[in-house]
Amino acid sequence: MKVLFATAELRPLVSAGGLGEAAAGLAAGLSELGLDVLTALPDYADYPLENEELVALEVPEWAAPASARIGTHPEAGPLALITVPGINRPNPYVDAEGKGWPDNEERFGAFSAAIASLSRVVKADVVHINDWHTALAPAFLAEGVPTVLTIHNLGHQGWAPPPWIHRLPRLRQEYTVGDSVNSLAGAIRVADRVVAVSPTYATEILQPEEGMGLDSELKARGTDLRGILNGIDTRAWDPANDAHTPPFDANNIDKKLDARSALLDHVGWEDNGDPLIVMVTRLVDQKGVDLAFEAARFLEGMRARMIVLGSGEQRLADWGTWLGETQPERFWFHNGYDAPLSHLLFAGGDILAMPSLFEPCGLAQMQAMAYGTVPVVTPVGGLVDTVIDADMNAEGNGFVATTMDQSGFVDALHRALRGVRHHGRRRSLQRRGMTRDWSWTEPAKQFRDLYTEIIEQTPATGQDL
Q: How many domains does the chain have?
């Protein structure tokens, strides 16, 4: 089975958020199952390839010239790096001031047209598109080409002004919302299957509060909307074989204390025995950073310390810096993303704070549990599907706030602190998290079955556009 897997991000080449991690993990998982997967990615920075072949792509005049360099990347595997006008940028989405590129709809619209052309070149059996950046592709595909859309975050939809509708060779009505083009809405309407990145998120987005204006379109898909939980790269996130931390595993959890010592050394704290609450996050409202930072005023009373690694909104970065300056023995903040440090936080921490306001899937809670760090989360999206409250279930692996507010989150932190201070209970919590299979194996199998299902149900492919 030939799968053309189209994404705007792919770790390790480019990853602005969870999309890059998820795309890389699923593409690799599908390949391990024996599927012939070619990942299509914008050629933002002339990435190197081995055994490279240059292919010209037939696209509408407004999207030309378009081409693809097809080859193999030593880490990312088989790639088609697509060049269309304006796609080569230092950041996929924003300029140096953090403002969106004014031609983003042009750039990714052309990318979508190129994806459709590439699918004909490589004779793909199924085209898998991800989020709004690739969502216009079905409008350029021949009728009858099987398509799957994965929604990683419904909040970004790819709006384009009314004249854009005349650029689409077909499905114009499906891509129209009001008098404008909504790329994601159109793909939701026309893709053979729509997949949300966790089962709970798949139900949440059917409600007006979480549907971001597209709940009606999603409800209309019925059973064609599925929820498949993301995995994590268990080779990159393996405490027994991690170059960034002292090694340990589920059979030797006491060695996790070495990682704690390394983390304390990095922060510059003496070990006073207090539990370490860690947080690795984007500094944005979605991640509930306000709830975590507000909870910092209780650290003294809770006899706990908090270490935060994050980048994003200046308001939150300033707040984190201020907390570190006013509570230097209780709160430590690193402004920016540091991959090795993120591994050290998960390895050396006792508790992960993840108070998201909404969370399609979430990766940090799974990464933390793989390292024996107990998650404290809010009851949303993929957090519900991965974290089982240990006070509500004897097989629990973490703690879930009962309400989406400050008191609910602080209560969950208190319960977690009681849990990790009890040696036997802490070990049980850690082992449950560390021994669960967080890999992409099972999600990849579900996608393989989904591809097979739609290929068998799809009539013969029509003529090229």
A: 2
